[in-house]
Amino acid sequence: MANLAERSSRSEPTQAYTPPGWPTRVRPPNTPDWEATAAAFLLDCCPSDYRAYPVLRRHPVVLARFAAEFVESQVRASADGLAGVRTSLADHVPPEVVQSAAEAWAEQGARLVRLRREVGLVEEALRGKVFVRKL
């Protein structure tokens, strides 16, 4: 049986690691075409007119910053919407509709929080962060 030093010195291929919350549509960092998949994902997180800006298409790290800011604004708007949905709708629709609307806001808020994490991880990777599996 090989000892630990001998095993660690062998050149075994290592699988690229992505942390929990990494978007499934984006290849792991430093794998072939990973930045292209990251850019496509980030563009899909932004308003469609962001595609018209060459700087965003040419520089994924700039696109990541724009995407992060946009998603963060959506998270804030969603929280504000949830906070006011009951009072803003109570006089206009039945209580069960208000409840359904509140649930929709809550679901949207949770989705956006997950998206914020995904965008943040991609941005960190584009800025050079190397993710390491914790033992």
Give a verbal description of the structure:
The protein has helices at residues 4-9, 34-44, 54-58, 60-89, 95-126. It is built from 5 helices and no strands. The protein is mainly alpha-helical. The two termini are 23 Å apart. It is elongated, with a radius of gyration of 21 Å.
In short:
By secondary structure, this protein is mainly alpha-helical. Helices cover 62% and strands 0% of the residues.
Distance between the termini: 23 Å
What summary fits the major beta sheet? none
The stretches of 5 or more residues where confidence is low (pLDDT under 50) are 1-13
Instruction: Please give the share of residues in helix.
Output: 55-70%
DSSP summary, beta strand count: 0
Average residue-wise pLDDT: 90
Number of helical stretches of at least 4 residues: 5
Structural class: mainly alpha
**Nearest-angstrom radius of gyration?**
21 Å
- Global morphology: elongated
Percentage of residues in DSSP E strands: under 5%
Helix and strand run: HHHHH
Which descriptors apply to this entry?
single chain, 135 residues, mainly alpha, 5 helices, 0% strand
List the helices and strands and how they pair.
Elements: H1 4-9, H2 34-44, H3 54-58, H4 60-89, H5 95-126
Helix pairs in contact: 2-4, 4-5
